[in-house]
């Protein structure tokens, strides 16, 4: 996906380092479908490499303005192989602490609160014309997840709703009805949700 390629390129450019960990942050949004404060408030212990899950649960970093949306928000999401690879590399670069994505702007350990500017920079670098927000990445995950298979059968809408933190399937069926119809007509994709990162060329090279 071009957006991840752009984020990875921005992480490597010291002059454009809005956020040193933009690539793993956006990858986590895209490959968990998590809400903004859910992803930014993740602890390192929430990444269960052995079990193959990302746990979204209450923790001390989520105060009144950064808590989980509801009791249904406490859940676990599959740790897809691509995300595991990205997060293991990210974890190896971190200083001792608890947060998965600690802010580099604070002396004491605190989570990021805003990454909109960094996301906009990645969208521009990837030359994506359509508006992209963090909630867009949640929609992207859901649309792809609904087209995966588990045990040879299409993943259940209930499982996807649980991964998103919904209390029932109504919103998924209402919002992604067209996706469900398409998967019934065209069949399902591989069981692994995977976004390949595309190489992003510098502007000078692109215009040469």
Keywords:
3-stranded antiparallel sheet; 208 residues; hpI Integrase, Chain A; mainly alpha; globular
Written account of the structure:
The structure is a single chain. This protein has 208 residues and is mainly alpha-helical. The protein has a single domain, classed as Intergrase catalytic core (hpI Integrase, Chain A). Helix content is 43%, strand content 7%. The protein contains ten helices and five strands; from the N terminus they run H-H-H-E-E-E-H-H-H-E-E-H-H-H-H. The radius of gyration is 17 Å and the shape is globular. It starts with a helix and ends with a helix. The model has no long low-confidence stretch (mean pLDDT 84).
């Amino acid at each position: 996906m071009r957006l991840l390629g752009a984020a990875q390129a921005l992480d490597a450019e010291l002059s454009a380092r809005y956020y040193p960990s933009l690539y793993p942050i956006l990858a986590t949004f895209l490959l968990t479908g998590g809400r903004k404060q859910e992803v930014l408030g993740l602890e390192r212990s929430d990444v269960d490499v052995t079990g193959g899950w990302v746990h979204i649960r209450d923790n001390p970093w989520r105060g009144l303005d950064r808590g989980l949306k509801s009791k249904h928000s406490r859940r676990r999401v599959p740790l897809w192989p691509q995300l595991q690879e990205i997060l293991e590399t990210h974890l190896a670069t971190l200083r001792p602490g608890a947060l998965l994505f600690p802010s580099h702007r604070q002396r004491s350990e605190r989570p990021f609160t805003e990454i909109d500017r960094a996301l906009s920079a990645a969208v521009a670098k990837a030359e994506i014309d359509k508006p992209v927000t963090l909630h867009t990445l949640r929609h992207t995950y859901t649309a792809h997840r609904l087209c995966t298979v588990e045990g040879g059968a299409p993943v259940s809408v209930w499982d996807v709703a649980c991964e998103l933190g919904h209390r029932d399937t109504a919103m998924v069926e209402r919002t992604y009805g067209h996706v469900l119809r398409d998967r019934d007509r065209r069949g399902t994709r591989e069981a692994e949700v995977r976004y390949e990162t595309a190489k992003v060329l510098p502007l000078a090279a692109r215009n040469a």
